[in-house]
Amino acid sequence: MSAQLSIQDLTKSYQAGIPVLKGINLEITGDGVTAIIGPSGTGKSTLLRCINRLVEPTSGRVLLINGETSFDLVKVRGRTLRRARRQVGMVFQEYNLVERLTVMENLLTGRLGYTPAWKAWLRWFEASDIDRAYDLLQKVGLSQLANQRADALSGGQRQRVGIARALMQKPDLLLADEPTSSLDPKTSVEIMELMTELTQAEGIPVVINMHDVELAKRFAHRIIGMSDGRIVFDGTSDQLTPEHLKSIYGGESWLI
Amino acid sequence: MANLNQSTAIIRSKPFSLSKKVKLGFVVLLLYVVYATFQLDFTYSRFISGLDNASTFFDRMFPPNFERSRILIKGMVESLQIAVVASLLGILLALPIGLLGARNLMPGWATWPARSLVALCRALHPVIVAILFVKAVGFGALAGILALTVASIGFIGKLFTEAIEEISIKQVEAVRSTGASFANVILFSVLPQVFARFVGFSTYQFDSNLRNSTMVGIVGAGGIGGTLFSAFQRFDYDFVAAILITIIAVIMLGELLASFIRAVFLENIGISDLWRKQSKRTLAAGGKDIV
Predict the structure, then answer these.
(1) For chain B, which terminal residue's Cβ has fewer other Cβ atoms within 10 angstroms, N or C?
(2) ipTM of the modeled complex
């Protein structure tokens, strides 16, 4: 049973009167990869961060519905907010691993929403969580590195850990904010393949912010084009024409 | 555009010259040093006339007299106990107070009382604090322990707060986005980033407490300081020498112990590894890159 995300009239202004998001309406249902493309500074990151509330939205609704549970992510606070966050995994551009912890500890941070602090401090995680961590490490190809400290890893390895950490949450939805922008082209494709395979196997919908239009076309079944805080394109990768790209990014000299 | 060119021309002419205000500042500083030197009778002849005293003083210090070793050991043990208890208390109290003072994690109503408390703990020298506690709770080790605890909170609390304010917020965001509780966010994203520095501050404070615990006795707050002070007053300079030698030896042992602790915590090596061949290298590395 995959989750449904429904964003209604979402706005965000960091400074009063200067909105970054100008009324976003977006429905995401079923599994599969949705890519959000658009120029820098257009609010892609803000949009993703409004979903898991690393950024406080100004107005609107963000509904996360899975079967019987449903959260309005704009309204929830305190314990309910933390419960809602448990359902949403996030992969970051700069991996955001806890550098001084081991790979295994970083994976288990994905379970912190379910673990009381005294148990977490003593590293008393559930045996099933540790099993899942080893399974995920194997799937991302890092079984050998479980006890390495995160700051000893390469960029590609770090992002694999980042994906595994997000999946440790058993999320209803995975957000990825420019997950390949700090990686070389070959590693980028490997990371995208890994992320799509693993989330499809577990039926988790993925929303990815991307710079790379070609990569977005290759991996996403649906592409959202954003420009100036609004959605200006919503369709499949086949429907995305150079005309659309012009309206999203402006100008045409960069199109070959 | 013309304006811009003009200003670049000015910058090109003398890139590293000091401004007139800075030059004037140096001149004023130099004049003040000369004035203070004369004011305090800080002269060579004064130094030479003082040397007479020094030679009789050193004459009577040697050979050091260890006959009253029972008093010496009793005082030294008390100093050590003061240092250990005060360090432990100070470290345990500085952790939450330092955390409360961090502006990037805590709201204003928590940071300003914590910061004021730490500033208050740092305002007075430990000896003055010791005098206050001697007046408040009476002579003895309790006053010394309290005084050095206050000093430890002031030092570790301030540096710990600053260390927390310098952490990478990205790691905190990542842990927060998993739905972790506040306590878990602290445990898994804040503490790992500052733990090494915290161990560094704590061992330095232990060093400093060990030194200060030999001094608070001078004002009656327990430890070897009291014995040292009365030996001075009775002109038992050979006993003074014995006490000083013991203090130096204990302080050096304390520094060794502190670098052991740093090595164990920061290099992630077990205690048993310390006795193996590589231990010297890791110990040397453990001493660096802290604070």
Answers:
(1) N
(2) 0.91
